[in-house]
Amino acid sequence: xxxxxxxxxxxxxxxxxxxxxxxxxxxxxxxxxxxxxxxxxxxxxxxxxxxxxxxxxxxxxxxxxxxxxxxxxxxxxxxxxxxxxxxxxxxxxxxxxxxxxxxxxxxxxxxx
Amino acid sequence: xxxxxxxxxxxxxxxxxxxxxxxxxxxxxxxxxxxxxxxxxxxxxxxxxxxxxxxxxxxxxxxxxxxxxxxxxxxxxxxxxxxxxxxxxxxxxxxxxxxxxxxxxxxxxxx
Lengths: 112, 111
Fold this sequence. Notes:
- With about 110 residues, chain A is mostly beta strands.
- Chain A has no helices and eleven strands.
- Chain A has strands at about 5, 10-15, 20-25, 30-40, 40-50, 55, 65, 75-80, 85-95, 100-105, 105-110.
- Chain B has strands spanning about 5, 10-15, 20-25, 30-40, 45-50, 55-60, 60-65, 70-75, 85-95, 100, 105-110.
- In chain B, the strands form two sheets. In chain B, strands 2, 4, 5, 9, 10 and 11 form a six-stranded mixed sheet that branches. In chain B, strands 1-3-8-7-6 form a five-stranded antiparallel sheet, with no helix packed on it.
- The radius of gyration of chain B is 13 Å and the shape is globular.
- The mean pLDDT of chain B is about 95.
């Protein structure tokens, strides 16, 4: 089944403890991206990647890192999480600009 | 700067009614427009994708239209059912790097 898989689905952590949210797609998509969703603010892009070893900042990149060493994987790294990073996170992928996006099921992160 | 607006923010209608959700965007230079459905606390499910050269797309009881020149799209839901209750999100793709979302319309179908 064609899909974007995120793990974990739920995560509670403490301030400052490094964490990684994994994202993997099995559709050979070129393009991958991370979004966060917050009440009243909607979905905002964190980082995106247009191909292997190519990443760039979205609208809200502060406090996050990403890497794209393989086409299928695009992990989101929080080096020192803070409570304002408590949010619902989505990974998405797309074949190219003329194609639609496929989203993962989301990761609900709580930083205490 | 591209902005996407969805009106109304929330809508309640009795079961069985046909309804229209609206989406407007400020810049007509887009690759495509995509409608998503999101259930509370869940992921985004793609409903319909309309390319910039297309006027509409249909899937079952759903029909989405696109008028690029006026910066508008509508999502028409026929014969609404309680299972249609969800938040509906409109998103436009202005370039390779991102899609831009509206804040959604929260739909409640009354049994």
